[in-house]
From TrEMBL:
Residues 111-171 form the SIAH-type domain. It comes from Acorus calamus (Sweet flag). Belongs to the SINA (Seven in absentia) family. Keywords: Metal-binding, Transferase, Ubl conjugation pathway, Zinc, Zinc-finger. GO terms for cellular component: cytoplasm. This is RING-type E3 ubiquitin transferase. One of its GO terms (biological process) is ubiquitin-dependent protein catabolic process. The gene is SINAT2. One of its GO terms (molecular function) is zinc ion binding. Its EC number is 2.3.2.27.
Length: 306
């Protein structure tokens, strides 16, 4: 994803966020000129936005610097976070840091316009240096976090990447179709500690939906919950509806809802109880038998809202 072999980098993807003062149509030229293996600090007759951006990267943590930007008496710059951590010693030349602001760099930052770092995912937006981080936090094109609910997974990416990741790394079951019929069996229904959960992915209307099923506790009450998340944005999710039905032994519960985007964490959806909730007693009625085992059949359907 990185273009060129730069040593100084802000974060993955940042090298593609190139913005120049030229009109948009010139970006490609500017880009190809800049993306050879130019070492950091190489001087060019016309400084590119890219190299100015590099100037604004903290030499210590490699993140973009925001005021106050500091420098040592020899001119080595660093961000205010790092300044607090280096105990008044310049990490580059070991000189005492003192308390010198680098106003020139702060002003340079003010003059810069940058493309959103998610340009390669489709974002065409351009922002003043100081406004960009705020946009990027909620950029429509920003990568999604892995929707798997188990141990913390740090993978993020676009939807095709995550689908492949779920399949290969988490061994998640993938199904084609907009209806489902799932059976969940749990040998020890008393145990809802450590939230047991399951995830199945459905391909439906050419999109992917995550069906979560899990056990957890609300206060002292053990609860089972099934809900659907959509692998895409909130806006896209709003076009879909789903229903879930769980029953057995002459009883039945149904739920109809709107899938939540995977932008909403699994935890957040669960805590908001936006799904089919089944209290344990009821679940045991559905299971029938001797209540030693939980056996739930969950059926459901996904459709487009007309
Ligand atoms: Zn830093
Ligand atoms: Zn220094
Ligand atoms: Zn963006
Ligand atoms: Zn993952």
């Amino acid at each position: 994803m990185l273009r060129g072999g730069y040593v100084c980098k802000e974060e993955p993807n940042s090298q593609s966020s190139i913005k120049s003062f030229e009109p948009l149509t010139k970006f490609e030229e500017v880009q190809s000129m800049e993306t050879d293996n130019t070492p950091c600090g190489d001087h060019r007759r016309v400084p590119s936005t890219n190299s100015m951006q590099e100037l604004l990267m903290c030499a210590v943590c490699t993140f973009s610097m925001y005021p106050p930007i500091h420098q040592c008496p020899n001119g080595h710059t660093l961000c205010s976070n790092c300044k607090q951590r280096v105990q008044n010693r310049c990490p580059t030349c070991r000189h005492d840091l003192g308390n010198i602001r680098c106003l020139a760099l702060e002003r340079l930052a003010l003059s810069l316009n940058l493309q959103c770092r998610y340009r390669e995912f489709g974002c065409q937006e351009i922002f003043p240096y100081f406004d960009r981080p705020e946009h990027e936090k909620s950029c429509h094109f920003r990568p999604y976090d892995c929707p798997y609910a188990g141990e913390e997974c740090l993978i993020s990416g676009d939807i095709p990447t995550l689908v492949a990741h779920l399949k290969h790394d988490h061994k998640v079951d993938m199904h084609n179709g907009c209806t489902f019929n799932h059976r969940y069996v749990k040998p020890n229904p008393q145990d809802v500690e450590n939230a047991t959960w399951m995830l199945t992915v459905f391909n439906c209307f050419g999109r992917q939906f995550c069906l979560h099923f899990e056990a957890f506790q609300i206060g002292n009450s053990p609860i089972y919950m099934a809900f659907l998340r959509f692998m895409g944005t909130e806006d896209e999710a709003a076009d879909f509806r789903y229903s879930l039905e769980v029953g057995g032994n002459g009883r039945k519960l149904t739920w109809q809802g709107i899938p939540r985007s995977i932008r909403d964490s699994h935890r957040r959806v669960r805590d908001s109880q936006d799904g089919l909730l089944i209290q344990r007693n009821l679940a045991l009625f559905f299971s029938g038998g001797d209540q030693k085992e939980l056996r739930l059949r969950v059926t459901g359907r996904i459709w487009r809202d007309e």
